[in-house]
Amino acid sequence: MTTLSSSRADTRQRAQPDPHDFLDLDASLSDDERLIRDTVRQLVRRDLLDRIPAAYSAGHLPEGFPATAGELGLLGMHLSGYGCAETSAVAYGLACLELEAGDSGLRSFVSVQGSLAMFAIRSYGSEAQKQRWLPEMARGTAIGCFGLTEPDSGSDPSSMITTARFEDGEWLLNGAKMWITNGSIADIAVVWAKTSDGVRGFLVPRGTAGFTTRDVANKMSLRASTTSELLFQDCRLPADAVLPEAVGLRGPLSCLNEARFGIVWGAAGAARACFEAALDYAGTRTQFGRPIAGFQLTQQKLVSMATQVNNSLLLALHLGRLKDAGRLHPHQVSFGKRHNVAAALEVAREARTILGANGITGEYPVMRHMANLESVLTYEGTGEIHTLVVGQALTGLGAFH
Question: Which residues belong to any copy of the Acyl-CoA oxidase/dehydrogenase middle domain (predicted)?
Answer without folding.
Answer: 145-235
